[in-house]
Amino acid sequence: MASLDNTGWSVPGLLVALLLVFDSGVLHVRGLEVSTGKVSSIEAMNGSTVLLPCTYSSCIGIHKLTFSWHYNNNGTMTKLCKGVVPSEGVEPKVKVEHDRVEFVGSSKSHNISILLWNITFEDEGEYTCFAKNPKEKYRNHSAIFTLRVVDQMREVDNTLTVIIVSVLGGVIGLVIIVMVIKALVVQFLLKDDEKNKECLVNASGNDNTENGLTGAKAENKGTPKA
C-alpha cells in the first residue's frame, strides 16, 4: 500500500506530480536570460560608432545557443546578425547581415554584443537582442536597447552644482576664519592674564620689602642708647 504524507499525497503520486512540473517547463530556476546591462538606452552623435550591448546567462549551461539582433524599423523587424554558440567556451559562428554592423562578442564572457558604425538619424530606435537555448527545451528570452541619435551632445547644466559648491566653500571658509580669530583672541587673553599675574607677584614682593625696611627703621629708632 502506498504511504501518505501530511498533505494527503501518496509518495508515488507526489513524485509523478513533480516530474510533470519539471517536464512541462513550469518550474525554472534562473533559466536562459539575456540582458543589455543596467542602462537600456544610449544617446550618441550622428556619425559616431556605438556599442549595442547584450549578454546571456543560464544556470544549467547552453548547447547550440542561437541568437540574433533585430532593428525595429517602423514596425518591421530588420535582422542585423545571427549566430550559434555550439557549447560553453566555444566561440560563436556569426553571420552579419548589415554592412555597418560588427560582432564583438565572445562566448568566454557570454557576450553577444555588436558595434554599429557611422550611425545616422535613420538608425534611431529600438534594437532587440534575442537568444534561444535548446538545452532548456528551446527556452528563449530577449532584451531591448534604445538608441537616440543627436546632432550634438547636450551640455550638462552645472549651475546648481556650482552654486552649492560655492556656498559650501564660503561656509567652510567662514568657519575657518572664525576659528582662527577665536584662537588669536584666546592666545591674547592668556598672555594678558600672565602679565597681570606677574604684575601682582611683583607688587606683592615690593610691598613685603618696603614693610620690612620700615619695621627695621622703627626698631632702630626705638632702641635706647646705653
Question: In a few lines, what is going on in this structure?
Answer:
It is built from 2 helices and 11 strands, in the order H-E-E-E-E-E-E-E-E-E-E-E-H.
Explain this structure to me?
This protein is of the alpha+beta class. The protein contains 2 helices and 11 strands, in the order αβββββββββββα. The strands form 3 sheets. Strands 2-11-10-5-6-7 form a 6-stranded mixed β-sheet, with no helix packed on it. A hairpin with a 2-residue loop joins strand 5 (about 65-75) and strand 6. The chain starts with 10 loop residues before the first helix and ends with a helix.
**Alpha-carbon distance between the termini?**
148 Å
Along the chain, the helix and strand elements come as HEEEEEEEEEEEH
- Report on the biggest sheet: 6 strands, mixed
- Please give the radius of gyration in angstroms: 44 Å
Counted beta strands: 11
* Average of pLDDT: 79
Q: Could you say which structural class the secondary elements and strand pairing correspond to?
A: alpha+beta
Biggest sheet, spatial arrangement of strands: 2-11-10-5-6-7
Low-confidence stretches: 1-28
Q: What is the 3D shape?
A: elongated
- Give the fraction of residues assigned to helices: 25-40%
Query: How many separate helices?
Result: 2
**Percentage beta strand:** 25-35%
What brief labels describe this structure?
35% helix, 226 residues, disordered N terminus, 11 strands, alpha+beta, 6-stranded mixed sheet
What is the topology?
Elements: H1 11-24, E1 33-35, E2 41-45, E3 50-52, E4 55-57, E5 63-73, E6 76-87, E7 93-96, E8 101-103, E9 114-116, E10 125-133, E11 139-150, H2 159-222
Parallel strand pairs: 2-11
Antiparallel strand pairs: 1-4, 3-9, 5-6, 5-10, 6-7, 8-9, 10-11
